[in-house]
Design goal:
The strands form three sheets. The chain has a four-stranded parallel beta sheet with strand order 6-5-7-8, with helices on both faces. It is built from nine helices and eight strands. By secondary structure, the chain is α/β, with parallel strands linked by helices. Helix 8 (236-245) links the parallel strand 7 and strand 8. It has one domain.
Length: 294
């Protein structure tokens, strides 16, 4: 509406003026901006002008229903492991794009289902991997294969990163920062005391990984990602907060002390805010450590 008002003020329709039946006009004041197609009738014919209007209109109306050529996605979508999917439906409930459906499990067990990913709907956010109960780093499997996972960043790679990063953490208690590829680059915050891992979406992190990092010796864990209310994948922030609070499955277990976990939403341009939050978190953790020592 604002655009139309601006155009009407910038290029008002001049028209022919008020009608006067006592005068036979001999010259028409044609508005070339809005009525430029009409002189084409004299250069061609009325039927030609009608065709020039009708054919493009019909083509535009047909575009939504014309068959589309399949486009190969450049980003791999979520993959389901039939051997590890229990049909719990958590990924179905948490997918922001309704890209997951359930079918009877191929093992023929009555009542069991298998998740199926619709590649056309999948946004490759990984939120489903964060909702899968089999995405637990505490499993003793050498390779952590989950019910549903992202091939470009499987949860097993996150566990291996934590194991490597915290292997020599006895002397230096590091803060582990899990970030989001869609938000600020958390890698710029890495230091001797801060280890950073950027995920496709913060919502893809299973809550058990927070507890796992703390048990492996991390001083604390910070979860960050897109600015609050502006998640690039719609629900990543909300599901993360609910899982950490214990109101959504899978949730962070109650035996994890809340003061060792912090959520700081920080988008691109919020680097200073996140840096300050990390510094304050380090101070609070130092006070906790001092209290425990005495």
């Amino acid at each position: 509406m604002i655009t139309l008002i601006a155009l009407s003020l910038w290029l008002p329709i001049t028209g022919q003026g008020a009608a006067d039946l006592a005068i036979a006009p001999t010259t028409l004041a044609l508005d070339w901006w809005y009525l430029a197609i009409h002189p084409l009738m004299y250069a061609t014919s009325a039927n030609t002008v009608w065709l020039m209007v009708i054919v493009p209109t019909v083509v535009l109306l047909l575009l939504p229903i014309l068959p589309r050529r399949a486009v190969q996605k450049s980003v791999p979508v979520a993959e389901v492991s039939a051997d590890n999917c229990s049909g719990c439906r958590r990924c179905l409930d948490d997918c922001p794009y309704a890209a997951i459906s359930m079918i009877p499990h191929p093992n023929k067990k009555i009542g069991f289902e298998l998740a199926v990913v619709n590649a056309d709907f999948c946004a490759a956010c990984g939120i489903c991997a964060g909702s899968c109960p089999s995405s637990s780093p505490f499993r003793h499997d050498e390779a952590l294969v989950t019910g549903i996972d992202m091939p470009q960043l499987p949860v097993d790679a996150i566990r291996r990163w934590l194991d490597h990063t915290l292997a020599d953490n006895a002397a230096t208690k590091k803060i582990v920062v899990f970030g989001c590829d869609q938000a600020m680059a958390v890698s710029t915050l890495a230091s001797k005391n801060v280890a950073t891992c950027s995920l496709i979406c913060t919502g893809m992190l299973p809550p058990a990984f927070v507890e796992y990092a703390l048990r492996r010796g991390a001083a604390g864990v910070i979860l960050t990602g897109c600015r609050s209310g502006a998640c690039a994948f719609r629900l990543g922030n909300q599901w993360t907060e609910e899982r950490m609070k214990g109101t959504r499955e899978p949730h962070l277990r109650s035996n994890v002390e809340a003061r060792h976990v912090k959520i700081v939403w920080a988008d691109r341009g919020d680097e200073a805010n996140l840096q300050n939050a990390i510094a304050q978190f380090q101070c609070s953790l130092s006070e906790v450590s001092h209290e425990q020592t005495h």
